Amino acid sequence: MPRLEDHCWSCSCASSVETKHSSGANWLASKAEEMMSIITSVLSNAYGSLHDVRTANLIRRGLVLFTVGAFLALVLNLLQIQRNVTLFPEEVMTTLFSSAWWIPPCCGTGAAVVGLLYPCLDSHLGEPHKFKREWASVMRCIAVFVGINHASVKLDFDNNVQLSLTLAALSLGLWWTFDRSRSGFGLGITTAVLATVFTQLLVYNGVYQYTSPDFLYVRSWLPCIFFSGGVTVGNIGRQLAMGGVEKPHMD
């Protein structure tokens, strides 16, 4: 028969062991909870910082695109006014730089929207644009775009249809030389259609007018200008989105 003292001693030992295991488990649980809290806090702070950086980068890119679009609109519009391609009311001609004040802000806003959409569309389609990703190529694209605009007011043809076909070929050549992406072509077409409709509404309401209109109230070559402008601004937006890091050619 076991003695009473042995029974009490064995019970006290078992209780002590259970207490030690329980305290150890509680300690591990508290440490794990503490580590998870630290990891969650670090990830939350990192996400917040990344979100702030992305927002600041998006605003900075938008401002750059707005400035470029407004400047190009001002210069190219003055060129068309000097060549009597577009006619504004007399009171408009007395304003700053002899141009309508609302044209640069509108074109700047459009350039910011289109320039920000291009890299977003590339990312959405899962096909990053890698063709000629360098600032030298972007600057050449801008030069060709300005040349196409200059040709629209300098070249003399028998009719506007011949001029429109010539500018259409030049615009497609610009896209093929500096873009060659489906997203760039599709967004360029969309930009051309929407911008042309908006211009038609402005001319219809008498804000300004075109000389010798042959496509409703505007010139038939105007969509070509908008298409090449969309591709040009899109290339600028793409280059800004990649932070200006130069990439090797992927011709």
A few lines on this structure:
By secondary structure, this protein is an all-alpha fold. Helices cover 73% and strands 2% of the residues. The radius of gyration is 32 Å and the shape is elongated.
Description:
The chain has 251 residues and is an all-alpha fold. It has one domain. It is built from 6 helices and 2 strands. It has helices at residues 4-82, 103-125, 135-154, 160-178, 182-204, 222-241, and strands at 86-87, 209-210. Helix 5 packs across helix 6. It starts with a helix and ends in a 10-residue tail after the last helix. Residues 4-18 and 244-251 have low confidence and may be disordered.
- Beta-strand percentage? under 5%
Class from helix and strand fractions: mainly alpha
What's the number of structural domains?
1
The percentage helix is over 70%
Write the layout of secondary structure elements.
Layout (H helix, E strand, L loop, with lengths): L3 H79 L3 E2 L15 H23 L9 H20 L5 H19 L3 H23 L4 E2 L11 H20 L10
Antiparallel strand pairs: 1-2
Helix pairs in contact: 1-2, 1-3, 1-6, 2-5, 2-6, 3-4, 3-6, 4-6, 5-6
List keywords for this structure.
251 residues, two-stranded antiparallel sheet, 2% strand, disordered C terminus, sterol metabolism, membrane, endoplasmic reticulum, cholesterol metabolism
